[in-house]
Amino acid sequence: MSTSRDVVFPMGRQALYERNRYSPAVRSNGFLFVSGQVGSRDDGSVEPELETQIRRAFDNLDAVLQAAGCTFDDVVDVTVFLVDPESTLDTVWKVLPEYWGDAPHPALTGIGVTWLYGFQFEIKVIARLPDAIELEKGL
C-alpha cells in the first residue's frame, strides 16, 4: 500500500533536499516531524565557526517550521547531536535561549556523536501543528 507524504519544504532549499534524497519535514497526525538541521549555508556547505554554525542550524530549522506555519513555541520534542559535546555544549547553551523563548520548554535529548558529515551540531524536532492545537481546544 503506497501513501503519499505531506512534505514541507522551506523556500529556496528544495534542490538541496532533493539532491540529498530526504524531506526536510513531514506533516502527520497533527504533528510536524522535522529532519535534522545543520549549520549549512544555502549551497549546503559547512559554516566553519561553531557559534555561527549553531545559529545557522537554528535559522534553517526556523525556516522549515515557518514553511509549515509553526514557530519554536510549537516544538514539543528536541534531539540535538553534538560532536565533542564537552567543548560544544557551552556554545549551544549560549545560543539556544535566543531561539527557544520562555518556559515551559520542550523535551530535550542530547546525544554525543563522532561524526556529522563535517558539522559539529545538528537539531531535529517534533512540533505540534497549529491546526491540531486549535482542533484540540475546540476552536
Automatic annotation (TrEMBL):
UniProt-listed Gene3D superfamilies: RutC-like
Q: Which residues form a coiled coil?
A: none
SUPFAM superfamilies under this entry? YjgF-like
Signal sequence annotation: none
InterPro entries on file: RutC-like_sf (IPR035959), YjgF/YER057c/UK114 (IPR006175), YjgH-like (IPR038743)
Q: What is this protein called?
A: RidA family protein
